[in-house]
Specification:
The structure holds two protein chains of two kinds. Chain A has nine helices and no strands. Chain A is mainly α. Chain B has two domains: 101 residues, Ubiquitin-like (UB roll), CATH 3.10.20; 123 residues, Fumarate Reductase Iron-sulfur Protein, Chain B, domain 2 (Orthogonal Bundle). The chains are: A mainly alpha, B alpha+beta.
């Protein structure tokens, strides 16, 4: 079987979704861990050091390219699969079957699109201005902690961020376990672990990210 | 359990053939016994339609004891009706209340075109089986049953997968019209046994290729198939199929 056959088959496409998904899950851990430095309560000193390292060191910058490649693959393949799958039933049912599966497992395309829209806002808030300054295109490196504080002083921004985190949480609630099933985890002893680990991970990640704008808005950190 | 009779309205999909557009039509049925099976209720309705000079409703059925996989029908928003681990022929009318309106639709999937009314063409499943759902055996005398030792756990898991009757409820239930639960059951029951070993890799590759060719959707692991399967085929078989496919694609020569 040629690589082309693999990656154009339905199972191969799902493998692309799963491997890029697991890669993005790993990224979320790094992102949440680094951002948690805002709670060090040191006026953003530790957080800014971390942010500087991520922008200035060559290793995270190379990984960043990989991250964008993975992200774009995940988005493009996901949208193509979603559109393709929708074409497989031209006449729909009069009564929908909704008891057998969770709503968020059926809504991965919509949840993913919401996350994508959120990402556009999120990257233009932080990543673009930060990287532009770090490369000295637009002058000195910016104080990212101060930038967060400023961004999250606006109520609608905080609400959009919390909704973005919720979309991510539900996307992960299905995506985490689905990704591992797609790469072939079927042993009974891992199955239960996958479900609880997946749910636990999505709750922790959602809470960690959602608490960031909330912490700034309500002044829980100094 | 108390027996009772009921009057019902059956809202059923009528479609002359695969080319013409279909639509719903409602029929009242009277004095239906709670102990009738769903198909017997349709039989009563069809007798009534024949008496009235109308075309009877076409539907698939054969053994009427839940083992052949011929009956289909998407009843009140679920393949094979509301009962768990059950086929339409074994769905009994005590599952319904007097005065109820029951909506009956055919399996909906591009790969299962409607032939007439509630009958759909499921020959795509046959072609998937032909693509690799077989084993090579030597000709001559049958081999002694116990000459090949097989681990009990594997034999049980293989048997659980072999329970699949190929009715297509998994496709009907799936939002993507994916045939992965069916395919994974067919691949798993052979992959778990030593008899399936010679064609292990080519089987999964060819059967997936045939499934894609037939126009089924891709699996997104929602679990709707497992929840509706009359034989309770586990969704873990899909993960096993994925593993079989991954290994086969990574280790093939070309």
């Amino acid at each position: 079987m040629t690589w082309k056959q693999v990656f154009t088959s339905s199972v191969g496409k799902k493998l692309v979704m799963a491997f890029t998904g697991i890669f993005l899950i790993l990224f979320l851990i790094v992102h949440a861990g680094l951002n948690a430095c805002i709670w060090a309560n040191d006026g953003g000193e530790m957080f800014n050091k971390g942010a500087h390292f991520m922008g200035a060191n060559v290793v995270p910058r190379i990984l960043e390219i990989g991250l964008f490649v993975g992200l774009i693959l995940h988005i493009v393949q996901g949208l193509m699969l979603e559109l393709d799958n929708r074409k497989k039933r031209s006449v729909g049912y009069a009564v929908a079957y909704s008891d057998g599966s969770k709503w968020y497992s059926r809504s991965m395309g919509i949840l993913g699109t919401l996350i994508l829209l959120f990402l556009v806002l999120h990257l233009s808030d932080f990543w673009f201005p930060n990287r532009a300054h770090q490369n000295f295109v637009l002058g000195e490196e910016i104080d990212l902690y101060a930038k967060m504080k400023e961004t999250f002083s606006v109520l609608w921004v905080v609400i959009v961020y919390v909704l973005g985190c919720l979309s991510l949480g539900y996307h992960l609630a299905h995506g985490f376990q689905s990704a591992f099933r797609t790469v072939g985890v079927h042993n009974r002893k891992y199955n239960l672990m996958l479900v609880s680990l997946g749910l636990g991970f999505s709750i922790v990640v959602t809470l960690a990210f959602a608490m960031m704008p909330l912490s700034f808005y309500f002044g829980w950190i100094n | 359990m108390e027996h009772y009779n009921m009057n019902l309205t059956v809202k059923v999909w009528r479609q002359k053939n695969s080319r013409e557009k279909g639509g719903f039509q409602s029929y009242p049925v009277k004095d239906i016994s709670s102990e009738m099976s769903f198909l017997e209720m349709i039989d009563v309705l069809n007798e009534q339609l024949i008496r009235d000079g109308e075309d009877p409703i076409a539907f698939d059925h054969d053994c009427r004891e839940g083992i052949c996989g011929m009956c289909s029908m998407y009843i009140n928003g679920k393949p094979h009706g509301a009962w768990k681990a059950n086929t339409t022929c074994q769905l009994h009318m005590r599952a319904f209340k007097d005065g109820e309106t029951i909506t009956v639709e055919p399996w909906r999937a591009g790969a299962f075109p409607v032939i007439k009314d509630l009958m759909v063409d499921r020959s795509a499943f046959d072609r998937i089986i032909q693509a690799g759902g077989y084993i090579s055996v030597n000709t001559g005398n049958a081999v002694d049953g116990n000459s090949l030792p097989i681990n009990k756990d594997k034999a049980d898991a293989s048997f659980a997968a072999a329970m699949c009757i190929g009715c297509g409820a998994c496709v009907a239930a799936c939002k993507n019209s994916s045939a992965m639960l069916f395919l994974s059951a067919k691949v798993s029951h052979l992959a778990l046994l030593p008899q399936g070993e010679p064609e292990r890799k080519s089987r999964v590759i060819n059967m997936v290729a045939q499934m894609d060719k037939e126009g089924f959707g891709a699996c997104t692991n929602t679990g709707a198939c497992e929840a509706t399967c009359p034989k309770e085929i586990s969704i873990s078989n899909i993960a096993r199929l994925n593993q079989e496919y991954l290994v086969a694609s990574l280790t093939s020569d070309k």
